[in-house]
Amino acid sequence: MRIQISFIAFFLLLTSCQEETDLTFETLTLDETRCSECPMVEIQIPKAMENSKTAESINTILTEEIIEILNFDDEMEAISIKEAVQSFSNGYWALKKLYPDETMGWEAKIKGIVTYEDPLLLTIEIDSYLYTGGAHGYSSKHYLNFDKRKAKELENWQLFKNREDFQKFAELKFRTQEQIPIGKPINSTGLMFERDSFYLPENIGFTKDGVTLLYNPYEVASYADGPITLTLKFEEVKPYLISKVKS
After folding, report:
1. Is the pTM of this model over 0.90?
2. Which of 53, 67, 145, 170 is the most exposed place for a label (fewest CB within 10 A)?
3. How many CB atoms neighbour CB 148 within 10 A?
């Protein structure tokens, strides 16, 4: 009887530990606009608060993502968000020095949100807007997918059992959404896929509604067409996913 009770207690403890796997996030908000003529930089991203390898990995990769977005100084190797802001600012001042009467103020807005989390997976969406001169700025979104147990970012190919099978399925759904007849070239309605062949986007992420495929402006259509998004319900894509998801 004691052995049975101990086993039940251990099972309940193990189940509780498995269920309580959601990470705790706080919003890190930075307004790095330093003077009236300086570039406007606003950053709002989630910060994992746990003292764990997973939290450290997530925060490091988010920092690297922001550095990549704001890197406009080839002579500076930024290793922090503040240094990335300085790199962006350096790019502006270098251009203003060359064209003092023509350079308009630069602007950067970066916002990150958690769009999906379960015991194994986490997805963070990074929404960025940059204006560095010209007729208009550029908006884009990026998805970062994490394996929480292995504390690492997942590449898109690591999400699927067979990437080719999923791509074939996604193309059928994409053609239906965009009203592209089966048998016709993928660009027959005005899209701009390279080599006139369908391919998966660089950005694939999990949301509460399912698996989202996101083509940013210029990837397969003109800027005027905006981003193209295809969201596939979990029930449809479960056979293609390596990891089980909660739907």
Report:
1. no
2. 53
3. 20
